[in-house]
Write a structure and sequence with these properties.
globular, 24% helix, alpha+beta, 7-stranded mixed sheet, 5-stranded antiparallel sheet
Length: 551
C-alpha cells in the first residue's frame, strides 16, 4: 500500500439603512478577509449577522448539505474528513492521513484522536462508517437521498478496523474517493442523528455535528442562530487555527430582497450580504465594502437540455441553441470582470478541463442553418414551425443563481431573433424545488454543480445506476456516453483519466447535451471591512473558524 504524504496535495493538476427584522444583532460596521493589522490579535467575541436569500425547504442533512444556502450553515456546524482549499489542494482534517492500494479499490483512513460530536459522543471509526454508508446509499424509501456526487456505483462498504482506523472498499478503481471526502455533502454527523427518521432529521436542532459552532435557535423560514463551541480544537490544518472560533454567534437571517441585504451591511446592521446583484458590486466596493467572489471547482453555468422532450429531442435544435447565444453580451451586460466566458462545461479551474469553446461559439448564421436543416421554418409571426408545432420551450430562472433571471431574459431575446418562442417562468426556492428540480418534463434546466474530483461526474451525466441524475434524460441509450463516464469513474491513472475527460467534454458538447453560458461565481459575499479571517474552501463556502470582527 502507498501512503499519501501529509498534507496531501492533489495529484491531478493543479443606499440607505433599512431594518430587516428584529432578530438582527447590532453590527460592528461595514469586509476584508485579510488578517488583522500586523501586531494586533484577532478580537475574541462578537456576533456576526449573515443575510441570506433563503433557508431552504428541509434540513435533512443528505438532502440539504449541497445547497448553496443551507450548505453555508452545515459548513460551520460540521467537520469533514478531508479539507479542500480554493486551489483544489487536499489536506488532512478529521482524517489525519490515508493509504490506498495499488489498484485504487481500497482506502484506509487514519482518524484524529479525541474528536467528539457536540453531544459528547466520540467521532470515531464507527461514526465514520455510519456516515460513509449513508452518503453512499441514503435511505431513499424514507426520503433521505444519497449524496449525488459520492462514488456510490462501486461502493462495497466501510469497516471500522479499530477506534481510529477505517477501511473503505470499492469493486472497481475509485480515484475520486478521497477528494469526495472534502465535498460539501460529506459532512460528519453523530450516529444518533443519522439513525433518526427523515422527519426528525429535518429538525436542525436534532442534527448533531462536531464543528466549531452548534445550533442555538431555529426560527423556521426566518433565521438560524449558531453559537461557538468552546471545546472545539480540531480545525483543518490548512486553515491554521488552533482552538475554538473567535466569534460568539452567527445569525443567518433570511432576507429575500438583495438590495435589503446589501443596505443592511452598508448601515452596519449586518456584516455579510450573500448574493448581491453583480451589477451592484462595483458601487458597493466604492462605498468601502469588501466583495468576495470565490469560484468553485465544478461545472460551469449553463443549460442541461432534456433530450426526451421536443424540441430538444433533435440534435440540430440543441446545437442551434448552443450557437444562438451571445455569451459576450451576457458577460458585458449582466456581470462584472469576476465572471469569465465558458470554455467547456467544466470550470477552467478543474485540472482536467480543456478548451472546447468552438463547439458552442456564437454563430447565428450556423444556428439558423441548423434549424433550416431540421425543417423548422419561420411563420408570419417570426416563430419557426414544423408539422403545425411552434419551436417553443420554457426557461425557468434558477433562484439559486444570482442574475439568472437577467441572463434568461437576454437568452430569450437572442433566441427569439432566430425564430424560437421562449417563455420564462420564475419561482422562489421552495416552489422551484417542487416544480422544476427532478421534473422530467422540463425542457431545459439552468444548472451548475460543484465537485471536487472529475471522477464523480458520471452519476450526474448518465443513468446507469439507481439514483443517477441523468441531466440530459438520455437514460442508458447513449452507449458512448456510458462508456466515457465509466472510464472516467474507474480509471486507475490520472493522466489517462485526463484524456478520457477531454473526450467526454468534446462528446457532450458535440451532441448538444449541454449549453455552456459562463464560468460560475455562484456565491457572492458583500462584507463589512471589520470582518476579517474568513476562509473560502474549494466549494466557495464561507468558513468562520478563524474569522473575527475587529474594531
Amino acid at each position: 500500500m502507498t501512503t499519501q504524504p501529509r498534507p496531501f496535495r492533489r495529484l491531478i493538476g493543479v443606499a440607505s439603512a433599512l431594518t430587516v427584522g428584529a432578530v438582527l444583532l447590532s453590527g460592528c460596521g461595514a469586509g476584508s478577509t485579510d488578517a488583522p493589522a500586523e501586531g494586533s490579535a484577532p478580537r475574541t467575541g462578537g456576533d456576526l449577522v449573515f443575510l441570506i436569500d433563503s433557508l431552504g425547504a428541509t434540513w435533512i442533512p443528505n438532502n440539504s448539505s449541497i445547497s448553496s444556502y443551507q450548505g453555508q450553515i452545515w459548513g460551520n456546524l460540521t467537520d469533514k474528513l478531508v479539507y479542500v482549499d480554493a486551489e483544489g489542494d487536499l489536506s488532512p482534517w478529521i482524517a489525519q492521513s490515508w493509504d490506498e492500494n495499488a489498484d485504487k479499490t481500497q482506502f484506509t483512513l487514519h482518524l484524529k484522536e479525541g474528536v467528539t460530536f457536540s453531544d459528547g459522543t466520540p467521532l470515531d471509526a464507527a461514526a465514520v462508517v455510519a456516515n460513509i454508508d449513508l452518503w453512499a446509499k441514503g435511505r431513499p424509501d424514507e426520503g433521505i437521498n444519497r449524496i449525488g456526487l459520492f462514488p456510490s456505483a462501486n461502493y462495497v462498504g466501510a469497516e471500522a478496523v479499530d477506534a481510529t482506523t477505517v477501511t473503505v472498499s470499492f469493486s472497481a478503481p475509485t480515484l475520486s474517493f478521497i477528494p469526495t471526502l472534502a465535498y460539501h455533502g460529506s459532512i460528519l454527523l453523530s450516529p444518533a442523528s443519522l439513525a433518526l427518521p427523515a422527519d426528525q432529521q429535518a429538525d436542525l436542532t436534532k442534527d448533531i455535528g462536531s464543528g466549531p459552532f452548534v445550533v442555538e435557535k431555529v426560527a423556521e423560514g426566518d433565521s438560524v442562530v449558531l453559537k461557538k463551541r468552546d471545546d472545539y480544537d480540531w480545525g483543518p490544518e490548512a486553515v491554521g487555527h488552533d482552538g475554538a472560533a473567535y466569534l460568539d454567534t452567527i445569525t443567518y437571517k433570511q432576507v429575500a430582497e438583495p438590495t435589503l441585504r446589501t443596505a443592511s451591511v452598508e448601515s452596519g446592521q449586518a456584516q455579510v450580504a450573500y448574493n448581491a446583484s453583480p451589477q451592484d458590486l462595483e458601487a458597493l466596493k466604492g462605498e468601502g465594502l469588501t466583495v468576495e467572489t470565490p469560484r468553485y471547482l465544478g461545472f460551469v453555468n449553463g443549460y442541461a437540455l432534456n433530450t426526451s422532450v421536443a424540441p430538444f429531442d433533435d440534435v440540430n435544435v440543441r446545437q442551434a441553441v448552443q450557437h444562438g447565444i451571445d455569451r459576450d453580451q451576457i458577460l458585458s451586460t449582466v456581470y462584472t470582470p469576476d465572471w469569465h466566458a465558458a470554455e467547456s462545461f467544466f470550470q477552467s479551474t478543474v485540472p482536467e478541463a480543456t478548451d472546447h469553446a468552438d463547439a458552442f461559439a456564437y454563430d447565428p448564421d450556423e444556428a439558423a442553418r441548423l434549424l433550416d436543416e431540421a425543417g423548422w421554418t419561420k411563420g408570419a409571426d417570426g416563430v419557426r414551425e414544423k408539422n403545425g408545432q411552434k419551436l417553443s420551450f420554457t426557461l425557468y430562472p434558477n433562484p439559486y443563481l444570482q442574475a439568472s433571471q437577467s441572463v434568461d431574459e437576454l437568452v430569450d431575446q437572442q433566441l427569439t431573433s432566430l425564430g424560437f418562442e421562449v417563455n420564462l417562468e420564475s419561482y422562489d426556492v421552495p416552489t422551484y424545488g417542487q416544480k422544476v428540480i427532478g421534473n422530467a418534463a422540463v425542457p431545459a434546466t439552468e444548472i451548475t454543480r460543484s465537485f471536487v474530483d472529475v471522477g464523480t461526474v458520471a452519476g450526474v451525466l448518465t443513468a446507469q445506476k439507481k439514483g443517477d441524475e441523468d441531466w440530459f434524460k438520455v437514460g442508458t441509450s447513449d452507449a458512448t456516453l456510458n462508456d466515457l463516464a465509466n472510464a472516467l469513474a474507474t480509471a486507475t491513472d490520472r493522466d489517462a483519466r485526463a484524456k478520457v475527460a477531454d473526450e467526454l467534454q468534446g462528446y457532450v458538447l458535440d451532441q448538444g447535451y449541454f449549453v455552456p453560458l459562463t464560468q460560475i461565481v455562484q456565491r457572492v459575499y458583500v462584507q463589512s471591512p471589520e470582518l476579517t479571517g474568513v476562509t473560502y474552501n474549494g466549494l466557495a463556502y464561507a468558513y468562520y473558524l478563524d474569522a473575527s470582527l475587529n474594531d
